[in-house]
Design brief:
Strand order of the largest sheet of chain B: 1-2-3
Number of helices of chain B: 6
Structural class of chain B: alpha+beta
Radius of gyration of chain B: 29 Å
Strand content of chain A: under 5%
Largest interface: A-B, 40 and 40 residues
Oligomer: heterodimer
CATH architecture of the largest domain in chain B: 2-Layer Sandwich
Radius of gyration of chain A: 21 Å
Shape of chain B: elongated
Structural class of chain A: mainly alpha
CATH topology of the largest domain in chain B: GMP Synthetase, Chain A, domain 3
Largest sheet of chain B: 3 strands, mixed
Number of domains of chain B: 2
Number of helices of chain A: 4
Number of strands of chain A: 0
Strand content of chain B: 5-15%
Distance between the termini of chain A: 63 Å
Chain lengths: 130, 208
């Protein structure tokens, strides 16, 4: 989907939202939800292209596949957490959006844990046993 | 050699920094950003430390994958001790099975060696066993015995017989070889007394 189409979709959705807000609040929120999901899925295909490029570049640079998959997973988690957090924030559930962000943080750290342990173990391994 | 490693290292760092800047642009700008940055910088540290690992002979890949496995087994909620015990048990069992098979192969080779040498001037290079159920070593499940044979080398004092030089068409030669293999199969079946199982004989190096 083009950037033009996405923008028009967004503008149309916001106009509809303003019109419907007074009459039917729940349907207005449904419009936001659907718009968000449509835009997200149209973007995902483009992101796939970028991810493939990153993977190819990483392979060329001899960066280990483990690191690259970790990074890509982290990016995916941050995107999904962001979208969920924004949607819930739009629905007026600020606390739920905070929880989603918290979950995102924790999952990112969880993915980083093996790397952290590897660094720490390596550093401990350098220290000679006296 | 040394300079190769060095150039590899430097290219890796440069390309990774470029990649990291692209990724930095990709991630959504909220407070998740710092966590992503932390992870990326940790990976950069690992790449920077690579020559040191090389010096200290640390296998960083195995270290990372082992800790990855640990995390995954914890994530799936199974008690990891049970998992480990199970894994070790399976390892020991498979080791025992492999040992039994090896011993069996040696015994079979010993039994058949003399008559093979007398009749066909050949000896067994190796024996493979195929079972209908994997992970199980029993006579009932044995489906096929694959025997690789080589021409036996004459021992000390043995006469080197000059082979007849016969020029033939390739086809006939192949047929002859097939017949020979079949004869060996029959002989082995008789010697090992396993008439109801399949025995396949190959020349060493021919493969399947």
């Amino acid at each position: 989907m083009d950037i033009l189409q996405i923008t028009i979709l967004g503008v149309l959705a916001s106009i509809l939202y303003i019109l419907l807000k007074e009459v039917h609040a729940s349907i207005a929120f449904l419009i936001i939800l659907i718009t968000g999901i449509v835009i997200f899925f149209s973007i995902i295909q483009q992101i796939q292209l970028i991810f493939e490029t990153i993977q190819r570049l990483g392979d060329q640079a001899n960066v280990q596949g483990l690191y690259l998959t970790t990074i890509l997973k982290i990016i995916g988690i941050s995107y999904i957490a962001e979208i969920g957090a924004h949607l819930t924030k739009d629905a007026g559930l600020n606390s739920v959006s905070k929880y989603i962000e918290l979950a995102g943080k924790i999952f990112i750290l969880l993915l980083a844990v093996p790397i952290i342990t590897a660094v720490i173990e390596a550093i401990i391994g350098f220290i000679p046993n006296v | 050699m040394r300079i190769d490693i060095f150039t590899d290292w430097v290219t890796q760092i440069i390309l990774f920094i470029i990649l990291a800047s692209v990724i930095d642009l990709l991630i959504p700008a909220n407070h998740l950003q710092k966590y992503v940055r932390l992870a990326i910088s940790l990976i950069l540290i690992l790449i920077l430390l690579q020559p040191v690992f090389y010096l200290f002979n640390t296998d960083i890949n195995s270290a990372i994958s082992s800790s990855m496995n640990n995390i995954e087994s914890q994530l799936h909620g199974q008690p990891s001790i049970e998992n480990q015990i199970d894994l070790e048990k399976r390892e020991i069992e498979s080791g025992q099975d492999a040992y039994i098979l090896e011993q069996m192969a040696i015994e079979l080779e010993k039994i058949a060696a003399d008559s093979l040498r007398e009749e066909f001037d050949a000896e067994i290079a190796s024996i493979d066993f195929q079972f209908s159920v994997t992970d199980s070593v029993s006579y009932e499940e044995l489906t096929e015995v694959i025997v690789y044979i080589t021409e036996s080398e004459p021992g000390e004092g043995a006469m080197n017989t000059v082979e007849d030089v016969v020029i033939e068409w390739g086809n006939e030669e192949e047929e002859q070889a097939d017949e020979l293999l079949q004869e060996i199969e029959v002989l082995l079946k008789e010697i090992w007394e396993i008439e109801e199982k399949e025995i396949t004989v190959y020349w060493e190096g021919e493969g399947l």
